[in-house]
Amino acid sequence: MSTTAKTLEALANREYKWGFVSDIEADALPPGLNEDVIRLISAKKKEPEFMLEWRLRAYRHWVTMERTAGAPTWANVKYPPIDYQKIVYYSAPKQKGEGPASLDEVDPKLLETFEKLGIPLAEHKRLAGVAVDAVFDSVSVATTFKEKLAELGVIFCSFSEAVQNHPDLVRKYLGSVVPYTDNFYAALNSAVFSDGSFCYIPKGVRCPMELSTYFRINTAGSGQFERTLIIAEEGSYVSYLEGCTAPMRDENQLHAAVVELVALEGAQIKYSTVQNWYAGDAEGRGGIFNFVTKRGKCAGRRSKISWTQVETGSAITWKYPSVILQGDDSVGEFYSVALTANYQQADTGTKMIHIGKNTRSTILSKGIAAGHGNNTYRGLVKILPRATNARNYTQCDSLLLGDRCGAHTFPYIEVGNASSIAEHEASTSKISDEQLFYCKQRGISGENAVSMIINGFCKEVFKNLPMEFAVEATKLLGVSLEGSIG
Amino acid sequence: MLSIRNLCAGVEGKEILKRIELEVRAGEIHAVMGPNGSGKSTLAQVLAGHPAYTVTAGQVTYLGQDLLAMPPEERARAGVFLAFQYPVEIPGVSNAYFLKAAVNEQRSRQGLEELDAMEFLELLEEKLELVEMDRSFVNRPVNEGFSGGEKKRNEILQLAVLEPRLAILDETDSGLDIDALKVVAEGVNRLRRPDNAMVLVTHYQRILNYVEPDHVHVLFDGRIVKSGGKELALELERKGYDWIREEAAAVQPAGA
Prior knowledge:
The structure holds two protein chains of two kinds. By secondary structure, chain A is of the alpha/beta class. Chain A has helices at 3-12, 35-44, 49-67, 108-116, 146-150, 159-165, 167-173, 184-192, 433-441, 446-462, 467-476, and strands at 26-28, 91-93, 130-136, 139-143, 155-158, 197-201, 210-216, 227-232, 237-245, 252-255, 258-263, 268-275, 287-298, 304-311, 316-319, 322-325, 331-340, 345-354, 360-369, 374-383, 391-400, 406-415, 421-430. In chain A, the strands form three sheets. In chain A, strands 5, 6, 8, 10, 11, 13, 15, 16, 18, 20 and 22 form an eleven-stranded mixed β-sheet that branches. A ten-stranded mixed β-sheet of chain A has the order 4-3-7-9-12-14-17-19-21-23, with helices on one face. In chain A, strands 1-2 form a two-stranded antiparallel sheet. In chain A, helix 6 crosses helix 7. The longest helix of chain A is centred in the N-terminal third of the chain and has 19 residues, at 49-67. The radius of gyration of chain A is 22 Å and the shape is globular. Chain B is an alpha/beta fold. Chain B has a single domain, classed as P-loop containing nucleotide triphosphate hydrolases (Rossmann fold, 3-Layer(aba) Sandwich). In chain B, 36% of the residues lie in helices and 28% in strands. Chain B has eight helices and twelve strands. Chain B has helices spanning 40-48, 72-77, 95-109, 117-130, 148-162, 178-191, 230-239, 242-251, and strands at 2-11, 14-24, 29-33, 53-62, 65-66, 80-83, 90-94, 141-142, 166-170, 197-202, 215-220, 223-228. In chain B, the strands form three sheets. Chain B has a six-stranded mixed β-sheet with strand order 6-9-10-3-11-12, with helices on both faces. In chain B, a hairpin with a 2-residue loop joins strand 1 (2-11) and strand 2. Chain B starts with a strand and ends in a 5-residue tail after the last helix. The A-B interface holds A 2-3, 432-435, 437-446, 448, 452-453, 455-460, 480, 482-486 and B 48-52, 71-73, 75-77, 81-82, 84, 87-88, 90-94, 96-102, 105-106, 109, 117, 120-121, 138-139, 141, 158, 162.
């Protein structure tokens, strides 16, 4: 084996450090899905009637889909059919009585779990600039800095709390961007989702800290179905981060989330994800099926939604964070790094739907495939007839490490008027022996050279991440931080 | 410092270097000249440890160590530097970042503390002047979008920053206009020290107008067929390589 191949092998086989299981007693429903399960989830969460009705409508729609077309098959990924009756749809850490009123009452084992993941929930330990909502299996276990944010009118809480305390907002916006009829997994999520995060930024407020949610799957056989809803009122700004890990198991686990963003006039939402679900082992056993629907609506004029994702985990990633550019002069951005090593598969990209005039979108996708990994970019740029002077720029670059992996690009471009412009650029490259030798001749080890080259390849995406996340992202790719000098 | 004995090497089964003998002492500058295809660049690549070349016989001793037994990164850390004829591009990796990584690899091998960003930038500023390069240069990705002249100057900048014991310059002078050539030559002269050595691999005598070599060797068909002082370079310039070809054929019959 050449030195290049060896170095790449080492990178592809990097260890998963988050694969432990916490010994926490769970209050879980038996596996299986029917209307009673949905009623039970809704009852456990003491939801108002409108929520249960919405869930049931979603469920009935999903059942119809399941009986007819089934799960979508157009993605460039392969996996055995999922038995939806074998999944546990609700699993929560067992608690006594009414549940913790403050962090002091949270099960220390839970706090320990998040501490071990590098997410200390005690506020004095947190980085001052980040508020965290921690989701463990099906429920949110703690949200930090809630009071401080409330002073500004910012609502940041678990979805369950939002349903209780802000039902009008939930009712108005839930499903307004991703209706339950949108797709198979969105329908399933709408029926069974158990928690997630809710953010509301009032008019003119610039959220003073990064808001973040950390998702952790723990219980075996359970799926995680969370829902995030972010509403940015006129002229407001928020930066939101999302991270996730799961134990190492031989069976696949399903994660089907929905994220909805609403940006009103002049509002800006920046949404960053570092996805590090367990990816399966070197032979392709186990790992998370990450089937996620993420979409933002630039509802108001001059609003802006920006997605940045670093996808390094999951056995299969199926996700297309999208922006509906409804308001005139609104802006949508998608920056993505997707790494597939071992037997990982990713079919990811975005949709930019231009409806308003002078709307602009930018897509920058960096796919890295190693080992037997299979990496697909799939993107839609749709410019409607009335979206005059719309602009899109798309760049898709793929980097192949080794000769057993694959990279694919499926761009769909539909331009409905003559004044708009859509540009698409794509490239595929390999780390060349000459590049490696050049680095080695300067004393840089092969491993560091590969890291450096990959890091350079991803740089334009990383620079859109908040600092703390950028560090985590580079670490995840086994690379050292580029751009720390000069 | 560098002692090459009976070195034979080739690529994909084709023999290129045939029994090379060369002795380089500290403080010396050697020019290795020869027509295209004579094996000049192969010699440079073999000394740096390029994996595409196979050494079939001979020894190379560098500062008392068996150079051929060392992997390329170890050779570099031990002070062997190759200025590439065709420096590669590394998109997205800034010059500064790349060089800092290289400097610190070398320092950690020498048991020195790694330089932090500020210390490194100070060092870099100083060296930039030496090669008359603009500060904006350091933030550009390694060689990406550089002109031919900029790439060569970048090699000299790296040479200046890394301060190797043994520098091998592979046709660093080719493709340079006269101003760039002067800058490169000036850089090389200022880096000349009693405790280091340089091997200039070149096709033309031109750079030797600015960098005075102690020894000149002529490589022909993988062999060093003639060695001499700097006057040999001038003779080659005047007479071309044809007389060497004839001489070589006379001394060394084909197949020998």
